């Protein structure tokens, strides 16, 4: 039943459970460790002087390889989840799919304990990464794959007028929970030094799985769809085709997906590559500086989620999203021209936190408000996810490609183009009561 507080609390709690992946694996601990283990810095200037890695004979810059790897994982999710979502809707086993991707992501995160590049640094020989990097690939698939089914529950458990508020609660819980685990890891590995940093990754997996069980107990089972019987795979194709034809007929939904594809491409690329940028471009930045900036993003992100939810209730979701995109554009320009010192990076981190929470929360709730009354929510959200993942793949690939020809600072400036196109497309979305309320 929509509006049940226990169900909503269980749904919100999955953000608490899984947000340790984007913070600790994607943003904080692993990227810092990866860059440190695969590069050489000049002791006097602190700038990176060598950063070449080898993956089965192929050579890349370390951040370039990192961008390519995660972009491929996004493509896997983008091309597999629409069909899987159709199967989930038809079979009524959406929760099982959520559990599968959750376990894949959590277990793979834990296996990053074994990450160990070798042979690099001696006469500037490339760092050999090998198979120990593959858990990052599968952790990414698990995290992003689970979000399709998780997000699709929102229109089923809450009324449209509550979507902004509940979506904001979810992101805020995620920022808080992941920050708590990050602080625990820092205490255990940096301050008391009772365990090596590589133990952070099994802790992420344990946290993710443990708290996800609360969500699994609270979320309702989905009733299998009635109608034509047949093989589950062919039924999945039928669900996919039906939803796609419906989306094509809805002008607002179709145009919003196009806008989301562009602006979210840039948002997620910034979040994934920010640590790599700081390590290479910020003179004198230390590991503790990076951790502080990431915590700033997390805690300001909680505030940003609620502020933009309140703003949207006054001016509408589309205007709230447009404002957030404008701030992102100014932020990228600021980073390109101004950010060279740690205190300047702190300012950027604060602004990122404010608009990151706001734009993610509003983007999810705006889409859920546009959906028709349907039993195919997983299938509808799979198209939302496809827009996100293909955009992420293009964004991270472009970021790495531009760096290979120019530098990482130019890669940041290039993201402005994605934001501008996304803003223009957002203005083309027809106004409606759902997204203006």
Characterization of the model:
Helices cover 76% and strands 3% of the residues. By secondary structure, the protein is mostly helical. The protein contains 17 helices and 5 strands. A 3-stranded mixed beta sheet has the order 4-3-5. The chain starts with a helix and ends with a helix. The radius of gyration is 21 Å and the shape is globular. Strand 1 (40-41) and strand 2 (48-50) form a beta hairpin. Helix 6 runs antiparallel to helix 15, helix 8 (163-191) packs antiparallel against helix 12 and helix 15 packs antiparallel against helix 16. The protein has helices at residues 5-18, 20-27, 29-37, 62-91, 94-111, 134-152, 154-157, 163-191, 200-218, 232-249, 251-281, 287-315, 317-337, 342-370, 377-405, 408-427, 433-436; strands at residues 40-41, 48-50, 52-55, 58-61, 127-128. It has a single domain (5-216, 249-430), classed as Growth Hormone, Chain: A (Up-down Bundle).
Key phrases:
437 residues; Growth Hormone, Chain: A; two-stranded antiparallel ribbon
Give the structure's gist in a few sentences:
By secondary structure, the chain is mainly alpha-helical. The chain contains 17 helices and five strands.
* Neighbour order of strands in the largest sheet: 4-3-5
Q: Determine the structural class based on helices, strands and strand pairing.
A: mainly alpha
Mean residue pLDDT: 84
Total number of beta strands: 5
What's the end-to-end separation, in Å? Answer: 23 Å
The level-1 CATH class:
Mainly Alpha
What's the CATH topology name?
Growth Hormone, Chain: A
Per DSSP, what share of the residues sits in E-state strands of 2 or more residues? under 5%
The largest sheet is: 3 strands, mixed
CATH superfamily: MFS general substrate transporter like domains
Please tell me what the overall shape is: globular
Low-confidence stretches: 226-230
Number of helices: 17
CATH architecture: Up-down Bundle
Rg over CA atoms, rounded to whole Å, is 21 Å
> How many domains is the backbone divided into?
1
Helical fraction: over 70%
């Amino acid at each position: 039943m929509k509006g049940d507080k226990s169900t909503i609390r269980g749904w919100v709690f999955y953000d608490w459970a899984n947000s340790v992946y984007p913070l600790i694996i994607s943003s904080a601990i692993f990227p810092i460790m990866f860059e440190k283990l695969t590069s050489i810095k000049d002791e006097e200037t602190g700038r990176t002087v060598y950063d070449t890695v080898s993956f089965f004979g192929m050579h890349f810059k370390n951040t370039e390889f990192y961008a390519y790897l995660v972009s491929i994982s996004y493509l896997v999710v983008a091309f597999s989840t629409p069909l899987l979502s159709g199967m989930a809707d038809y079979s009524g086993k959406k929760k099982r799919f959520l559990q599968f991707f959750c376990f894949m992501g959590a277990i793979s995160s834990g296996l990053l304990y074994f990450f160990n590049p070798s042979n690099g640094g001696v006469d500037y020989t490339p760092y050999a990464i090998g198979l120990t990097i593959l858990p990052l690939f599968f952790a990414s698939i698990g995290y992003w794959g689970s979000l399709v089914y998780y997000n699709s529950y929102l229109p089923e458990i809450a009324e449209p007028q509550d979507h902004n508020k509940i979506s904001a609660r979810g992101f805020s819980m995620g920022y808080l929970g992941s920050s708590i685990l990050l602080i625990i890891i820092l205490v255990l590995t940096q301050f008391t030094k009772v365990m090596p940093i590589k133990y952070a990754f099994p802790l992420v997996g344990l946290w993710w799985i443990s708290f996800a069980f609360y969500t699994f107990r609270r979320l309702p089972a989905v009733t299998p769809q009635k109608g034509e019987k047949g093989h589950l795979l062919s039924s999945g194709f039928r669900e996919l085709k039906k939803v796609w034809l419906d989306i094509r007929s809805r002008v607002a939904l179709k145009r919003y997906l196009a806008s989301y594809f562009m602006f979210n491409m840039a948002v997620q690329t910034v979040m994934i590559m920010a640590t790599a940028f700081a390590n290479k471009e910020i003179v004198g930045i230390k590991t503790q500086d990076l951790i502080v900036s990431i915590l700033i993003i997390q805690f300001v992100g909680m505030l940003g989620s609620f502020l933009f939810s309140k703003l949207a209730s006054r001016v509408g979701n589309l205007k709230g999203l447009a404002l957030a995109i404008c701030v992102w554009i100014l932020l990228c320009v600021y980073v390109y021209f101004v950010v060279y010192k740690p205190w300047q990076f702190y300012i950027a981190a604060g602004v990122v936190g404010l608009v990151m929470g706001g734009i993610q929360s509003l983007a999810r709730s705006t889409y859920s408000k546009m959906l028709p009354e349907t039993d195919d929510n997983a299938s509808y959200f799979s198209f939302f996810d496809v827009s996100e993942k293909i955009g992420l793949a293009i964004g991270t690939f472009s970021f790495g490609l531009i760096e290979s020809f120019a530098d990482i600072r130019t890669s940041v400036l290039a993201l402005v183009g994605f934001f501008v196109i996304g803003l223009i497309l957002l203005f083309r979305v027809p106004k409606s009561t759902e997204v203006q309320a």
